[in-house]
Specification:
This protein has helices at residues 10-16, 59-68, 95-100, 143-158; strands at residues 2-3, 6-7, 17-20, 23-26, 41-42, 48-52, 55-58, 75-77, 90-92, 115-118, 123-130, 133-140. By secondary structure, the chain is of the alpha+beta class. The chain folds into two domains: 2-92, Alpha-Beta Complex (Homing Intron 3 (I-Ppo) Encoded Endonuclease, Chain A), CATH 3.90.75; 103-161, GCC-box Binding Domain (2-Layer Sandwich), CATH 3.30.730. Strands 5-6-7 form a three-stranded antiparallel β-sheet. A three-stranded antiparallel β-sheet has the order 10-11-12, with helices on one face. Strands 1-2 form a two-stranded antiparallel sheet. Helix 1 (10-16) packs across helix 2.
Amino acid sequence: MKIDNIMINKELLDELFVYCDGKLYYKNHKYKKLIGKKVGTLNSNGYLYAQINGKRFANHRLIFLMHHNYLPQCIDHINGNKLDNSIENLREATYSQNGQNAKLRKDNTSGIKNISWNKTVKKWRVQIKIDGKKKHIGLFDNLELAELVAIEIRNKYCGEFANHGN
């Protein structure tokens, strides 16, 4: 598999790294003092990255490739923890599914995922994004009812990728 003009495959990764408990360790490196040390530098988005031949690769993508011998376009961290790269926590996803598994956004004003206050009608609005398109579900006087509707709608449209904001 060619990524950024570098041939990355399971064999190369198995030669360079050892996987143990969700982490990569150097198995082979030009700097011998790094052998046995953890692989990865934390980036500003909270993911660990490794360097191979001068190119950066997300550790979770390398781990997925090492275990499944293919690399999907998108990989989801099931529990939402970007540093938990255990293979049991990684699954293939579409970009939409990955977004559905996102936690509550920091700019959320209701404190509940998929719910916002509509100032014009003075009601709670429930909406969900599916395949990049916003779907308006309804307006509610009661926040608790809006939350129940939001949970149901996430379960219906997101299935196993439904994240209720935790």
